Structure to design on (503 residues):
C-alpha cells in the first residue's frame, strides 16, 4: 500500500508540474473518468462515510464504512456533522491537505478548483444542498471561447445512495445543486493562476450564468 | 431501424395528450414570490435562445412526450459521444449511444415532483422533472434514465449495466394497495418524488408519495434498505433557513423539536430551504406485512 501511495504521489507531483501544459481531461468527447469505484452506503445516514470510503479506496486505502462512520460521527437523525467531513477525508484518504469550500461564498474560483482537481487526477467530495454527499471522479469541460477558462459541461460522480455507478449532471444543474465541497488544496491550487471564477463572459451549459449577479 | 423510432414516436404521440393533461405534481412548499421575476427572465431567455446558446433546446418548456424526447435527444447528441474512443465512454453508454444513433430505442416519460433544493434554484424554477427511461426496442431492456427540467434542459442521468440494472419504478396503484393493506391508510394523489437527505429518493429512482387530508406520506422502497412509510404531517413545524444560514444554526434556533435517534424521526428537506420532520408510520399490530 505504501508503494502504491508513493507511486501515486509521484504521478500526482508530475501532474502538478505539467498540468498547465498537459490537460489530461480536456479535449476528448468522452467524459474524463478517474475510475473511482462506486460503493453503496450501508445505512440511510452514511453517505459521508461511503463517499470517503470511495475516495480512500481510490487512494489505495481500504477501510470499513462502519469505521469511517464511527470516526466522523455519522448518526441519526441528521447524519454526519459538517465539521467532521474534512477531518474524515484527512484521516482516511491520502489527501492530508483537504479543505472545505462553500460555493459562491468560499472563494472566487469554486468550480475552477473542481475541474483542476479532476484534471490532476484527484477526486473530491461534493455536497448537495447540505443534504447529501457524493464523490466526484470525472467529467467533461471546455475552454470558454472568450476567456479561455475551463468550464464544466458534465460532472460524473459516484453517488453512494444510487443504484449503481457513474451518475452524471449537466453543468447548469450541477452549479445549482452543489453548494459545498471538500477538496485537496494542492490538487486544486493552480486554479488560482490559470482558472478563475465563472465570470461575466463564461458560458455554462444549461445555464444563463453570465447574466446572474451573486 | 428508422421505423422503430418512428413507431415509438407514434406511440408517444398517442399518449401525448395524456402527459399534457396530467396535473403537475403537487408540492409541499412554494418558491419565494420575489424570485419569480428571475425565473420569468430565464424562461424568456430560453424561449428566445438560438442554437448555440447555452440555454437552447428545440422545445423550451415541453408539454408532450415527443417534445420532451426531442429536447433530450438534442442535448444528448450535442455531446457527440460517437466521436469518442468507445473504450473511454462510461459503462453502459455504448448501448444507449448505438440505440439512439440507429433509432432502436423507445422512451417513456413521467413527471416526478421535485422536493429537492433544485426546486427554487437561482435561475430555474423546477417544480418537477421529466423522468425519461430509454429502452432497447427489441429486447425491452432499460438502457438509461435521465431527468429533464421543466424547462427542457438536461439535469441528471445514469446508465444501466448488466451488473447494475435499474430497479422497477413502484406502480402507484399497487403501492397504494400495499400501503392500505399494511398500514390501513388509504390516500390519494399518488405521485413520484425526488428527495435528498435521510429519506433519499434518487433522481433516477424516485419514491412514491401520496396525500391524505392535510398530511403527506412518502413510501420509501429501496433495494438495499427496508421499506418504510413516513408521514409528513400538515401541522408539523417547519424550519425555513435564512439566506446564508447553515442547517446546524437553523436547528439551534428551532422551531423543529429534538428528534429521536433510532431513525423513526427524520429531518426532512422539502426544498426551498425548508425543513420539517418525517415520522415513520409503524405497521399496526396484527396487520399483514
Amino acid at each position: 500500500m505504501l508503494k502504491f501511495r508513493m507511486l501515486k504521489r509521484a504521478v500526482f507531483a508530475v501532474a502538478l508540474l505539467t498540468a498547465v501544459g498537459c490537460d489530461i481531461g480536456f479535449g476528448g468527447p468522452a467524459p474524463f473518468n478517474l475510475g473511482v469505484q462506486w460503493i453503496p452506503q450501508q445505512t440511510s445516514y452514511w453517505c459521508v462515510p461511503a463517499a470517503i470510503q470511495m475516495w480512500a479506496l481510490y487512494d489505495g486505502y481500504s477501510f470499513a464504512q462502519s469505521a469511517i462512520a464511527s470516526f466522523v460521527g455519522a448518526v441519526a437523525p441528521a447524519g454526519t456533522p459538517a465539521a467532521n467531513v474534512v477531518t474524515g477525508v484527512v484521516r482516511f484518504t491520502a489527501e492530508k491537505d483537504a479543505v472545505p469550500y462553500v460555493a459562491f461564498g468560499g472563494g472566487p474560483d469554486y468550480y475552477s478548483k473542481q475541474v483542476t482537481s479532476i484534471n490532476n487526477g484527484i477526486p473530491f467530495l461534493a455536497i448537495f444542498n447540505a443534504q447529501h454527499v457524493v464523490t466526484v471522479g470525472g467529467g467533461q469541460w471546455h475552454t470558454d471561447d472568450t476567456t479561455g477558462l475551463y468550464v464544466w459541461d458534465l460532472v460524473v460522480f459516484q453517488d453512494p445512495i444510487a443504484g449503481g455507478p457513474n451518475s452524471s449532471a449537466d453543468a447548469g444543474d450541477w452549479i445549482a445543486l452543489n453548494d459545498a465541497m471538500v477538496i485537496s488544496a494542492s490538487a486544486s491550487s493552480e486554479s488560482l493562476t490559470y482558472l478563475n471564477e465563472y465570470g461575466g463572459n463564461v458560458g455554462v451549459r444549461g445555464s444563463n450564468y453570465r447574466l446572474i449577479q451573486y | 431501424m428508422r421505423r422503430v423510432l418512428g413507431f415509438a414516436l407514434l406511440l408517444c404521440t398517442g399518449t401525448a395528450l395524456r402527459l399534457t393533461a396530467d396535473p403537475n405534481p403537487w408540492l409541499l412548499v412554494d418558491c419565494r414570490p420575489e424570485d419569480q421575476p428571475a425565473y420569468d427572465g430565464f424562461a424568456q431567455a430560453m424561449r428566445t435562445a438560438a442554437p448555440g446558446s447555452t440555454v437552447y433546446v428545440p422545445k423550451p418548456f415541453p408539454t408532450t412526450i415527443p417534445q420532451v424526447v426531442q429536447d433530450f435527444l438534442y442535448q444528448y447528441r450535442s455531446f457527440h459521444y460517437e466521436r469518442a474512443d468507445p473504450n473511454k465512454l462510461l459503462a453502459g453508454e455504448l448501448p444507449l449511444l448505438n440505440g439512439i444513433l440507429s433509432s432502436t430505442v423507445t422512451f417513456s416519460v413521467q413527471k416526478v415532483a421535485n422536493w429537492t433544493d433544485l426546486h427554487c434554484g437561482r435561475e430555474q424554477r423546477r417544480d418537477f422533472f421529466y423522468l425519461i427511461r430509454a429502452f432497447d426496442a427489441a429486447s425491452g431492456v432499460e438502457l438509461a434514465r435521465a431527468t429533464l427540467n421543466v424547462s427542457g434542459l438536461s439535469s441528471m442521468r445514469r446508465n444501466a449495466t448488466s451488473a447494475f440494472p435499474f430497479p422497477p419504478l413502484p406502480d402507484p396503484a399497487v403501492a397504494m394497495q400495499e400501503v392500505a393493506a399494511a398500514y390501513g391508510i388509504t390516500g390519494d394523489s399518488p405521485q413520484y418524488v425526488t428527495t435528498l437527505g435521510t429519506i433519499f429518493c434518487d433522481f433516477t429512482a424516485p419514491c412514491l408519495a401520496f396525500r391524505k387530508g392535510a398530511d403527506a406520506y412518502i413510501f420509501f422502497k429501496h433495494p438495499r434498505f427496508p421499506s418504510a412509510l413516513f408521514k409528513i404531517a400538515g401541522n408539523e413545524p417547519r424550519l425555513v433557513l435564512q439566506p446564508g444560514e447553515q442547517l446546524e444554526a437553523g436547528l439551534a434556533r428551532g422551531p423543529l423539536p429534538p428528534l429521536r435517534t433510532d431513525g423513526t424521526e427524520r429531518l426532512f428537506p422539502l426544498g426551498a430551504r425548508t425543513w420539517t420532520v418525517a415520522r415513520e408510520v409503524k405497521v399496526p399490530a396484527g396487520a399483514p406485512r
